[in-house]
Specification:
Layout (H helix, E strand, L loop, with lengths): L2 H32 L4 H4 L10 H20 L13 H16 L13 E6 L2 E6 H26 L6 H5 L3
Antiparallel strand pairs: 1-2
Helix pairs in contact: 1-3, 1-4, 1-5, 3-4, 3-5
């Protein structure tokens, strides 16, 4: 087994999504301290053509569960995109982490060479597992978590680089 593939998938997803969950908690606390409904933040975005905070969290979770499943050679679970509260977004993160953490390390054996086919902009794109993880899945995960972070930071939530990186 190649422990790098497991570590770069499961361990990185655990830490990154765990940090995202903690950031969401800080967003709720910020809104409550300032006296406004936290739900206002869920539909905020950095630019008119970008996804909302809710969608950023959904995509981050979808990226993690999809990458872990594809690399382990198992079916990607379906999550409906119905979250409308911070609690529901945190539950989605928890479901995603439970799924990812439930995949045995041995399932990643040979994953660096496993063929992964994704449909991107209505075209099939084929990757070797290692390329998929390091050149698509991880950058995509980090992009959506960073964008969620930026939306909240832009709205005055007191978060910093340490929050983004997660607890050690």
């Amino acid at each position: 087994m190649n422990p790098l593939m497991y570590d770069a998938t499961v361990k990185v997803f655990d830490r990154s999504l765990g940090a995202l969950a903690a950031i969401l908690d800080k967003a709720v606390a910020h809104a409550e301290a300032k006296g406004f409904d936290p739900a206002i933040l869920l539909n905020d975005r950095l630019a008119p053509d970008m996804f909302t905070l809710t969608r950023q969290v959904q995509i981050a979770c979808d990226t993690a569960k999809g990458a872990a499943a594809r690399l382990a050679g198992i079916e990607v679970p379906k999550h409906e995109d119905t979250e409308a509260t911070f609690a529901e977004l945190k539950a989605r993160i928890a479901r995603t982490l439970a799924f990812v953490d439930g995949i045995p390390a041995a399932a990643f054996s040979g994953s660096e060479d496993r063929t992964v086919v994704l449909q991107i902009r209505k075209q099939d794109v084929t990757f070797a597992g290692r390329t998929y993880l390091f050149e698509h899945a991880l950058p995509n995960l980090f992009f959506h978590i960073t964008t969620a972070y930026a939306i909240l930071r832009h709205n005055g939530v007191a978060i910093g680089k340490g929050d983004y990186l997660g607890a050690r």
